[in-house]
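Severity: low
Component: inverse-folding endpoint
Summary: output formatting inconsistent between runs
Steps to reproduce: submit the following structure tokens with default settings.
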């Protein structure tokens, strides 16, 4: 079996490179309201999805007693 020469290989689609880190905005200090109302719809939608997922996974505080043990479990 002959090995393909580099010129015989098909061209791969060009994938955009990740931007340099200095070009990315620092969102850590922004208030949640500003992220949710961002003029960039992709950013706003992503922030809402993260918030929705966190709210769905978070257990209500009433399900735990002060020692962080679920109330349904017997105390040891």
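Observed output (run 2 of 3):
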């Amino acid at each position: 079996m002959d090995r393909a020469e580099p010129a015989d290989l098909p061209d791969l689609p060009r994938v955009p490179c990740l931007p340099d880190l200095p070009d990315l905005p620092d969102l850590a200090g922004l208030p949640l309201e500003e992220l949710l109302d961002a003029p960039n719809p992709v950013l706003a939608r992503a922030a809402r999805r993260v918030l929705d997922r966190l709210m769905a996974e978070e257990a209500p505080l009433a399900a735990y007693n002060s020692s962080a043990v679920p109330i349904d479990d017997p105390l040891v």
